[in-house]
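Marked as duplicate of an earlier ticket. Keeping the data here for the record.
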Amino acid sequence: MDVKGKKITVVGLGNSGVNAAILLNSAGARVWATDSSDTPSTKNMRKTLEAKGIKVETGSHSESFVKDSSLVVLSPGVEDSSEPVRWANRFKIPMIGEMELGCRFCKGNIIAITGTNGKSTVTTLIGELLKSGGKDTVVCGNIGNSLCGEISRINKNTWVVLEVSSFQLERIENFKPRIALILNIRDDHMDRYSKFSDYFNAKLKIFSNQDGDDTLILNYDAKELRGLEGKARSKILFYSRLKKAKGAYLKDQKVYCLSGGEEKEICAVNDIPLKGLHNVENVLASVLAAAVAGAEPGPMKDVIKKFKGLSHRFETVAIIDGVDYIDDSKGTTVDSTYRALESCAKPVVLIAGGKDKHSDYSAVKDIVKRKVKELVLIGEASGAIRKAIGGAVATHQAKDMFDAVRLARGLAQKDDIVLLSPMCSSFDMFSSYKERGEVFKKAVDCIKGSCQKVKI
């Protein structure tokens, strides 16, 4: 991509925007970067970019930053209603997302993973499976560092394992992964999309540029995905825990993968240390993608047996007086909480709530009736959750995470589970799901009597 001497405006100074600005600057562009916030983090990013000769504004957007640009690069969180987008439309300036920019500079082979739930686990596990097979591998995207931030590490032999969100897919043009995975598509981000079909169609853009040399991997057990077989130009493979599928499947409590036309046993379900049926699906998806990328099935079993999963994803953090305390702070959707509850074999005291994404919380009402003995609510979405679930379970309101854990401790008995699985994003009370999970862990430490005073 030739950007030398061109004025390019980057909107947003999070990880994606900062890395996009640095990449463009190194490629010889005249970079202008703008962010409406003026937080300590944004100010630090401003200093970093200005030291490289990049023109930066924070605290507001100026029309002059967009006008006369050859291209506007948008961070994933930038919505169509934002001023820079409206100005770019008025001046007829093309706009792309950070991920699209990264793929135009990327020389490697991209494996792109999207879905409402399970993306981070599958992305991480695919990376581990490929690395164990000796392949040069970079794991990036929505899971951590952006694609633009990894370009210098990527060559033509690199496998780039990329977690992709619907927000990133909205702004693609040429993005073309060698292997694309769609794990599931459930109700989410209804604060961003006016209707579910808009969210669904954004996810489907992951294979819009694929051709017959590429592969699309779909979850056969997700009925909303099974019917996509005739809509893609790429080769389609399925994974399933319910039937023998053309790809990877579960049979007699063992994971199998079709590799080179042969059925090959990968591991037994008992070899998977991660709890829950959804994690069996995650393993199926991961081994199939790794096999398509050329990883040998033989070494996969050892990787899977050692894979402990991700922090804040159904992670047992303590057992106190016979009660399991589980951190599922990454459970930011209704469906992820449903799956977490499916994995609980003991009565649950559920801590839920956070920033309301206008999700359909009633979708968990039946499983809450079956699995949850007490519900503790926190955050902005408390009222909406209480209204949707109705009288399915006794419900309590907490003022913060420490209060929620104290309440849960009093409600739980031996052989119960206290589960943090919010169904919501974290941004009403925390900077990220990670911070929310860490505060949960500190609160659990406090009821063990080993905490330090923490200000929230």
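See parent ticket for discussion. The chain has 16 helices and 20 strands.
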